[in-house]
Amino acid sequence: AQSVAQPEDQVNVAEGNPLTVKCTYSVSGNPYLFWYVQYPNRGLQFLLKYITGDNLVKGSYGFEAEFNKSQTSFHLKKPSALVSDSALYFCAVREMNTGFQKLVFGTGTRLLVSP
Amino acid sequence: DAGITQSPRHKVTETGTPVTLRCHQTENHRYMYWYRQDPGHGLRLIHYSYGVKDTDKGEVSDGYSVSRSKTEDFLLTLESATSSQTSVYFCAIRGQETQNTEAFFGQGTRLTVV
Lengths: 115, 114
Fold this sequence. Notes:
The structure holds 2 protein chains of 2 kinds.
Chain A: E1 3-5, E2 10-14, E3 19-21, E4 24-26, E5 31-38, E6 44-50, E7 56-58, E8 64-68, E9 73-78, E10 87-95, E11 104-105, E12 109-114
Parallel strand pairs in A: 2-12
Antiparallel strand pairs in A: 1-4, 3-9, 5-6, 5-10, 7-8, 8-9, 10-11, 10-12
Chain B: E1 4-7, E2 10-13, E3 19-25, E4 31-38, E5 42-51, E6 54-57, E7 64-70, E8 73-78, E9 87-94, E10 104-105, E11 109-113
Parallel strand pairs in B: 2-11
Antiparallel strand pairs in B: 1-3, 3-8, 4-5, 4-9, 5-6, 7-8, 9-10, 9-11
């Protein structure tokens, strides 16, 4: 079965510093990987996805993620954090070539960027 | 936001009463999903639909039923609400047949069962 692990409940970073939010996954086939962000009292917003091709994927708001097949990881990164990046981040995986497009989410990581 | 509307946005109900949440989309997307969000659990899939009258169970379907009589509407029903169903419920939609498209989420419905 598909699964996603986000090992950190919270990540704290100072504004202007680089940030990393970790995600590892488990699937039996090749994965489609996604990052979503949730601001307070809002739904989830799509940030970026990995389907195939370059291991470094660029997305919205200056975020990027690096796919590492050998480590089964898809960490979210940003070179310089902003206070406005503070939110809840979810990693999700969907397995290729399955009969149904089930999207499985991690438990979320709260990012807190301090001024 | 994509054309997804969830109603109601907030609801307080008593244990044992039936509750129906509605998800309405204007995108004509094929796939629709209901998730619940709880602290420490992330988002968990309750039910999903892959077409009109085509639905199936997700990982936490007990106590819930769904219906999809039209492409644009996906209803989630709690037949007899329990306190454990207090949660935030999200509807999501996805349009394409290929697997590489992302899902879009509604604003959520906060349900409190007292």
